[in-house]
Write a structure and sequence with these properties.
Helices cover about 25% and strands about 20% of the residues. By secondary structure, it is of the alpha+beta class. Strand 1 (about 20) and strand 2 (about 25-30) form a beta hairpin. The longest helix has 17 residues, at about 55-75. It starts with 5 loop residues before the first helix and ends in a 9-residue tail after the last strand. About 25% of the residues are buried. It binds guanosine-5'-monophosphate (5GP) and zinc ion (ZN).
Length: about 110
């Protein structure tokens, strides 16, 4: 799985991405198809297929803390932002390696489509 998984390959440095933050267990990089002025992804370095497969709550905490740091660094912490985890088909997941979207820099609609 790790050999063919896109985000495993980005996390290993095999495929380039604009990395904007990292910690011991996660990296954050800019989404290639930004849907907002700030759109980045937080992914664990280890392969977890989706939120359905998460067993280590500490790992998700590390993802959330890195997202918080990115929001601060990108200047959207105070204006507001969203941390979204699309899960499986109806959730709109297209890359099957757990990731959180950081979205901000404009007013975001609710409810989502
Ligand atoms: P999902 O639809 O699974 O929630 O989100 C996957 C996200 O990954 C999409 O927003 C898509 O634009 C982004 N993405 C897909 N391939 C690449 C890539 O090669 N590099 C980067 N930086 N983002 C990607
Ligand atoms: Zn992976």
């Amino acid at each position: 799985m790790a050999d063919s998984c896109l985000f495993c390959r980005i996390a290993r440095g095999d495929i380039p991405a604009t990395i904007i933050a990292e910690n011991a267990r996660c990296i954050a990089f800019r989404d290639i198809n930004a849907q907002a002025p700030v759109h980045a992804l937080v992914v664990p370095r280890e392969h977890v297929t989706s939120l359905n497969d998460l067993t280590d709550g500490t790992l998700f905490g590390e993802m959330a803390l890195l997202a918080q740091q990115v929001a601060r660094d990108e200047g959207i912490a105070e204006s507001g932002w969203r941390f979204v985890v699309n899960t499986n088909r109806d959730g709109g997941q297209s890359v099957y390696h757990l990731h959180g979207h950081i979205l901000g820099g404009r007013a975001l609609g609710w409810p989502p489509g």
